[in-house]
Amino acid sequence: MSKKILITGSNGLLGQKLVELIIKDPNYALIATARGANRLPKNIKGYIYEAMDVTNREETLSKIQQLKPDYIIHTAAMTNVDQCETDRDACWELNVRATETLVEASRVNNVFLLHVSTDFIFDGENGPYDEEAEANPISFYGVSKLAAERMVFKSANLIRWAVARTVLVYGIAHDMSRTNIVLWVKKSLEDGKNITVVNDQFRSPTLAEDLAIGCFLIIQKEAQGIYNISGKEVMTPLEMAMRTADFFQLDKALITETDSSKFTQPAKRPPRTGFIIEKAAKTLGYKPHTFEEGIAVLASQLLK
Known about the structure:
By secondary structure, the protein is of the alpha/beta class. It is built from ten helices and eleven strands.
């Protein structure tokens, strides 16, 4: 009998990629959930959709009791770092309280909970980080995601759980509702626009498909604990822009180098994160694409 996986935030980029991936595996029945209407294309079949607002505790507890999943992959979150800084109540409601509710639902219904987290729980003083590194967030987004992780850790004796931390996810959503550094650089340079890109922040860019695969591996193996699920290369946005320009054979002279002191944003960004992914490689068999391979995946999707 197939086991049931419930995804929160199925309208988001990661949620979409998880749906596409999991429906191919006959060993699992998939329940996609998000706030409001289903935004996945009608030609994607093989799952059921349930509207569920994870910030509504009673609705969430009731739905999970009714749907009885074996696993929850919790992707729903407020991820706009500056919005989290300026609208802290909404950020806390979605990133922390909702996680607390899902922990409760998992305990009551004996569900394995996989919570998706971020490199922004770190201050970026000495990345790249492994799973044992000490968290010290410098933005409210980071504070909220660390608080959510701690909700999960606190329940360690009560539920089966895993945390998948990731970095700078890029990919193409079905409705093209989100941009990313690859698409932004490509479009800007094709339009002949000059762009300014920072050279003093370091990240491990993560293809959304790779993150989905990493999450699914955790579920398949019921691998408990913390896992870094990201790209394996650490680079600056400037290097990402240059490599994108090279891939599409666009004019790199349009790219101007700068540093982050030239930008004023509500939330601070950690200067150097990136992840060491040896644990995920060894324990899960996780093998992410290189950055160029990731660009090629996006390029092939754009052709469709």
